[in-house]
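Because showing beats explaining, we think one record worth quoting, sequence and backbone structure tokens together, and here it is:
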Amino acid sequence: MRTVGIFYDGSVYTRRWLWTLLWAKDEIKKLGYKIEFVVFSQKLSDRDARRLENGTFETVLIAQHAGFRKLPIQQKSKFLKYVKQYCRNLIWLDTSDSTGTCNFEVLPYVDKYLKKQLANDLSVYKQPLYGGRLHSDYFHRKFGVLDPDVEKDIMAPLDDRYIDKIGLSWNVGIGNIESHGLVYNIFNRFLFPYIPVKTNLYHFISPLMGERVIDVEFQGSFTSPGVGWQRNTASTMLSKRSDLRMPSMEKRGSYKAYFRELTQSKCTLGLFSFGEICYRDFEAFIAGSVLIKPDMGHMRTWPDWYIKDETYISVAWDLSDLEQKIDQVIGDWIHYRQVAEAAQTRYQYFVGPAGKKEFACRFVDIVT
């Protein structure tokens, strides 16, 4: 049995993503691999350092969303060189929300660098991106959007010498979607990774069930202009549409009330923010609502949820056709609900037993 060490930061965000490993750990074990989680911020505890130095971990995966990830490269490289001495494979798991904001400065010190979503054209990583993201750069170039908050997100350019190290891990869609509430997060913080997880317990609502009395569901954080241009623009646009039946975009109720609205909505907007993919995409799949989302053809991800006009309805990044697409969906709901059906079927597969086995095989490919 080979042991894989997951060296992670302990944050809620990272735990929700790594939850997939708990869910699939029995399948992974059948393939000859055991997973162990190690929490660290800037350095390992004495106990974990001894285990590393004793050769416990054949492969180490680094998953850091804060803390260590933001340290100067001199400190990061020193730690990575140290870890690499005692393991066969050292893999950096990029936890970023977007295809951008990469930590390519670590490439010389790791064997693989894996992102949750990756640009189809890797050459885009060789040039500066405003805000460190493809979409913030697009908003800046097309509309002159300025944002001091994301201007500081500057990433090292991709060096051709390391391009073969770049690859895909897995996205948040098969992570923990329904972790909400203070009590849950406190519980999860202290018991992760000891929580037994056997299956996903999502309650799927068929698009064919019940009457959809809401035209559009659109709620989300309205972030800074550099990354939140689409959400802010859509809010202004839709606030003028008194003919649309939709809940308040500003009012925040309970998650239970929000999900009930989703199950009653014909379509749901999944616009970009700090990243292209958001939990709302998968909540829409579960609720049987048609996902309307900016075109995702620029990127690769796994699982691939985004099949244009088959599992989601695509709109232009500048939202020039957003209202038209919304009107089409609500005007011919009987036709367009097949999109929600296709998305839900695909999602059910990947969060079910067959998807779990496929993920386990993929994970073993990653660590070998």
About this structure: The first helix runs from residue 12 to 30.
